[in-house]
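Pasting as-is:
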Amino acid sequence: MMKHVPPTTPDAGLNEAATRDDHIAPAPRVSIQAFCESVETAAAIQAAGDDRRMAKAHLRIQMGGVTAAAEAYRTSPTPNVIVLESESRGHEILEGLDQLSDVCDPGTRVIVIGRLNDVVLYRELMRRGVSDYMIAPVGTIDVVRSICGLFSAPDTKPIGRVIAVIGAKGGVGASTIAHNIAWAIARDLALDSVVADLDLAFGTAGLDFNQDPPQGVADAVFSPDRIDTAFVDRLLSRCTDHLSLLAAPATLDRVYDFGAEAFDPIYDSLRATMPCIVLDVPHQWTGWTRQTLIGADDILIVASPDLANLRNAKNLVDFLKAARPNDNRPYYCLNQVGVPKRPEIKPADFASALECEPLATIAFDPQMFGTAANNGQMIAEVASGHRTAETFRQLAQTLTGRLEAKKQRPSLFSPFIGKLMKRPA
């Protein structure tokens, strides 16, 4: 008989949209087979298989519904998850599931997609061990949420939220902003957090937090066979009661070339133990930085108000929107705004080109930022009442889902931005 995985709330499958959460934990390495009756549902499931949160899962789609599934598993073992679409009436769905249960391996989880919005049917499905019931037509994100939700039991610790911060150009202060956001998440929101410095050669997190740990992220990435939650936990350096640091060695005695998935085991281990992970991503374009950005829950691009930053930020936004169609679009903020005698592109022009308002605009203040950097302190420690410290608190709230981002508003295009907008994504 199929294993029963109870829903988080009674009749949750009938009103999923009402309890929808933007943060969806990724699925583990599992096998999934879907048996569909409509092309539309098959397309939605196929698109779900391409979602970043389903990257580790192996998905196979067939047509034929419950009947095809029961026939297929008479002579072959069942996968971890079966997704069944049925356009039949309630009693016919139940009869089909009874036939399937005769050939279904213990522990297999079943998701049913049907056309009937019926509480009695839903409860009968749950009683028979069905893990979830969705009402067609289903969207891509509905399928992703349902499958990933099978492996996030309500009585377990929530999977950590990954926030990636990257500069649109070198020297724009992305690391400083990443560290201050992590500090604000830990201090002002009281969330256990870790900041991971991924610039192994030139990282500054150790300096910014006045830490000199003997171990860090390099010990993990160069020892992939040893990575687990206990090993990664030993590499963390505690900065405050709620904030830990996974520092970079910041030495040049090694060449830091990695494969695209080299850091994935580290992220998985951090997700299992930390509610919030802030990744300080270096300004470079490699397989692993690309994979890191695609796999993050939220992304913040830091840019200065000049032409190169505008171009690079737009390229990043366009790429990430296409690579993550079911996620929030990347956020961006403008830093070092108002440098004396420097011609700058106005925030409104940035908003026009990127089709979104900046999440924050941070003024150029060399005295305050320089003092904080030289003292190994955060901005809130140097000037807790300064508006920049409040900006970091607001960024922390938004990126952790505690506050809505600013709404988009239309803006006029300058001649250059008009040309930039016409470029293919």
